[in-house]
Amino acid sequence: MEAQQRTEQQIAQLVGAQQHTEQQVAQLIPQVAQLTQQVAQLIPQVAQLTQQVAQLIPQVAQLTQQVAQLTQQVAQLTEGQLRAERQIVRLQDDVGELKGIVSNSATATVPLRIFLACLRRMHTVTDDELWHSWKRPWPGGRSLKTVWMRSRGPT
After folding, report:
1. pTM of the entire structure?
2. How confident is the model at residue 137 (pLDDT cuts 50, 70, 90)?
3. How do the domains of the chain map onto residue ranges?
């Protein structure tokens, strides 16, 4: 009898647990229905997002290609700028050398210009002019005769 009482107690406990489980299932049914409805609403949104992602994939690929091209162009521009900077330095050096040459040339041509000016003023001297310049004092108070005589040395 005791075994039967224990069995009856266990059955009563199991019946109580079954009723409790049924109550929980009854409470979960509206929640599951609500979740099913939400999932049904999300399915078109997921399809729309999938379509949008599919449209974005070629755009991303195109942008990736454009970025690669821009990177290559920037590298080419950088290389070109470096070449231009080297050419500018070379031109600055060349211009500096030319300035030096022109400066040296200008200082070298000064005596030539003076000599050419003297040549342009040359003219044939008449006997009278020669005679008068022979006796006329030059700067420093000496006459051409005195200068000529001294240049010959002692006689």
Report:
1. 0.40
2. low
3. 62-124
